[in-house]
Amino acid sequence: RREPLALINLKKKNEETGEEELASRLDHCKAKATRHIFLIRHSQYNLEGRADKDRTLTPLGREQAELTGYRLASLGLKFDQIIHSSMTRATETTEIISKHLPGVKKISTDLLREGAPIEPDPPVSHWKPEAVQYYEDGARIEAAFRNFIHRADVKQEEDSYEIFVCHANVIRYIVCRALQFPPEGWLRMSLNNGSITHLVIRPNGRVALRTLGDTGFMPPDKITRT
Question: Where in the cell is it found (predicted)?
Fold first, then answer.
């Protein structure tokens, strides 16, 4: 619903001529800026934790977050905000990353929490959540995609750079949806802990994937995918 034609009332006529001033009105509805979306997967965490509050980052996970934060800072970009999942491992990853990006505001959201976005095709034998989980999580993760991944607002004058710290399933689903690939293929991609995925959304709505799950900035012995 951000295509310019969807933002104007085609029935509204010019009072003097009775003709639609379509071209002029479309210009006022066209985005002018590019959005750069950096999707960060949380760092390694304690898999033994029974509740979310117990699934804290491991010492290695904290090192990974430091490396990711350093990498983001080294890009020399003016980041606008960090939006992160409200789960413990994503929140802790955000806190460490934000130390390298002083002054960048942080926003927590439940929409980006981990979950089962859609039944994968082809199916896998090692992961079979209950069908109801797809309905509950899928609707929420789809809402996250629609809420956060879109062309710039028409009022935005300059390009923006935004960071989203969340989870592998969420990122993989978002990438498929953003590129208009069948979302059922989300599980065919793998993402390392602390990895950076970079999406670019142009003013005309076109999306490009610059990087997927980049961890080339980490030493080999620091790379994990748990």
Answer: Mitochondrion outer membrane
- Residue 25's pLDDT band, with cuts at 50, 70 and 90, is confident
C-alpha to C-alpha distance for 40 and 61, rounded to whole angstroms: 13
Say how many C-beta atoms besides its own lie within 10 A of residue 127's C-beta. 10
CA 6 to chain centroid, in Å, comes to 24
**Quick one: 133 exposed, middle or buried, by C-beta within 10 A (0-12, 13-18, 19+)?**
middle
Residue 65 sits at φ, ψ, to 5 deg, of -65, -40
Nearest in space to 204 (alpha carbons), one of 43, 60, 30, 41: 30
Q: Which residues contact 42 (CB under 8 A, 6 or more apart)?
A: 57, 61, 85, 87, 89, 90, 92, 93, 165, 166, 167, 193, 194
Q: What is the pLDDT of residues 81-136, one digit of tens each?
A: 999 999 999 999 999 999 999 999 999 999 999 999 999 999 988 888 998 999 99
Q: What element of type H or E holds 199? A: strand 196-201
Q: What is the SS3 assignment for 118?
A: coil
Whether this prediction's pTM lies above 0.90 is answered by yes
**Structural domains for the chain:** 1-30 (no CATH), 33-222 (3.40.50.1240)
- In angstroms, the CA 1 to CA 65 distance is 36
Task: Determine the Cα–Cα distance for residues 224 and 208; give it in Å rounded to an integer.
Answer: 26
